[in-house]
Amino acid sequence: MGFNAKWHQEKIQRVEEYVAQHKAEIAQHPWRENYHFQTPVGWMNDPHGLIQFQGKFHLFYQHHPFSGKWGTMHWGHAISKDLIHWEHQPEALAPSEDYDGWEGGGIFTGSAIEHQNELILYYTGCAKDRQVQCMASSTDGLNFIKSDHNPVLSDPPAGINPHDFRDPKVWKQGDIWYMVTGVTDGVSDLIEPSNSQKNGLGKVCLHRSKNLKNWEFVNYLVESSGELGTMLECPNFFPLDGKWVLMYSPMGLQERQVVYLTGDFDEQTGKFHWQTMGSVDLGFDYYAPQHFRDDQGRNLIMAWVGSWPFMPWCRGEYDTSELGWYGSLTLPRQIRLCPDGKLASEPVQEVEQLREQEQYYAPCVIEEATPFSFTAGDGVHCEIIASFDLSETSAQQIVFRLRGSAEQETKLEFDLAKGEMIFDRTRSGNISALQRKCPLESASQPQLTVRIFMDSISIEVFTDNGRTTMTNNIFSNPESNELSISTVGGRTRLLGLRTFGLKSTVIA
Ligand code: FRU
């Protein structure tokens, strides 16, 4: 039976009506982000289908419009000219077929390509008894038709759990189209959530096709023997600065959320020989980044700012779900490969257009007894760039106090003695009130430079020249807006501090 476009359109219409009814009320909440992308209504997770098509950036995302909790998934859609200002579009895909789970999990994560002037989407249909790969296409980039050939790939290789076969990322190399998907040979997390940490060995499947419809299994790019995770969600595989990068979101690796592996791709065998492993971001709330290359040749990634109940620190209770929404996206980041095989990232330069109220603080010494108070915009929506001369620092710790008030504070600590960065949200107001630590390379360098982006609830931190990043949500009162820098165990020399307020991109 062919695709029933009218029924699909009706389902999209229902989403649009629901969104129109609820968006004004949701927009008023002070926890709504000012310049990070969010869906107007409902739950969102992974960004996907990132592409430049007919001169505009397209962003699709996992969307459950009808509540602030995960449910039967749809694809939300937005368009931008500059990666910063996004215009919401009607829902791109709604689950309408048995194969794409209209009564099940719905339409899961995927990717976009351009072919013969069409924007083609690949996605996982999460049907009742299995996950299958499907396609949909559009000539105008707004209205999508699901292929009559769906599902274009319904069977994973032998031994793979058909409930965990998802997140197709498609690209072209020479004349051949390739697709990577994440799979496991263990018990599905969807069937037995408590098992997801224990069972199975994750793999990344590589398929290829000449016509985008018939797909042939090539090999497993990588196979975990425990060290890579139990299920490798949202794989991305792309060349970068002379090497190949496999970036994915593992289940079963405890605190390690988003992994990258860099190495060499053997196209003959379809095997990836990686040499270096790292974390794309080390915060609590960073998952499912997707990579795309723009027409300037930049390698860009955007990720979900949020976390899943299977992550040890997330109890499955979300701070904003009862308000009818959850989730946002990171700023778009440009990535590069460092000579030692590690990845580094920085927000795209277009972010700078949001800057206002610039402040510059001249170099000075910060003594232990005297915290250095400063301002950055309204103290909530701002950018902070600070450098410290570590050769003239006796302190063991340099501590940023962010979003402070009598009742609340968020601490970002640079422990030079231990070589760690610590994000402490135990007093931020969050349900999940915890600390997150990661190694700080700059502790052994002459200089420490930190760049912090704060929005209503998210904080993105960049240090170690972009080699260490952390993204976390905090749910503080909007009135908590004090900022200061202090030290523990000695003094530090502040080389310079620049701050900016950041303008909102929300269209009223
Ligand atoms: C990752 C993920 C994907 C899946 C989607 C479902 O966050 O679990 O593997 O396709 O979310 O919403």
Number of strands: 35
Tally the helices: what do you get?
1
Bound chemical compounds:
beta-D-fructofuranose
CATH fold name of the largest domain: Tachylectin-2, Chain A
Please tell me about this protein's structure.
The chain is 5% helix and 48% strand. The chain folds into two domains: 5-347, 5 Propeller (Tachylectin-2, Chain A); 354-502, Jelly Rolls (Sandwich). Strands 23, 24, 26, 31, 32, 33 and 35 form a seven-stranded antiparallel sheet that branches. With 508 residues, it is mainly beta. The relative contact order is 0.12. The site of beta-D-fructofuranose has 14 residues, from strand 1, strand 5, strand 9, strand 13 and strand 17.
Spell out the key features of this protein:
508 residues; mainly beta; Tachylectin-2, Chain A; Jelly Rolls; 2 domains; 7-stranded antiparallel sheet; 6-stranded antiparallel sheet; 1 helix; 48% strand; globular
Topology readout:
Elements: H1 5-27, E1 42-53, E2 56-64, E3 74-80, E4 86-93, E5 106-115, E6 118-126, E7 131-138, E8 145-146, E9 165-173, E10 176-184, E11 202-209, E12 216-223, E13 231-240, E14 243-251, E15 259-266, E16 271-279, E17 287-293, E18 299-305, E19 325-326, E20 328-329, E21 333-337, E22 343-347, E23 355-361, E24 364-366, E25 372-373, E26 382-389, E27 397-404, E28 410-415, E29 420-424, E30 435-439, E31 447-454, E32 458-463, E33 468-473, E34 482-488, E35 492-502
Parallel strand pairs: 1-19
Antiparallel strand pairs: 1-2, 2-3, 3-4, 5-6, 6-7, 7-8, 9-10, 10-11, 11-12, 13-14, 14-15, 15-16, 17-18, 18-20, 18-21, 21-22, 23-35, 24-35, 25-34, 26-31, 26-35, 27-28, 27-34, 28-29, 29-30, 31-32, 32-33
The protein binds beta-D-fructofuranose.
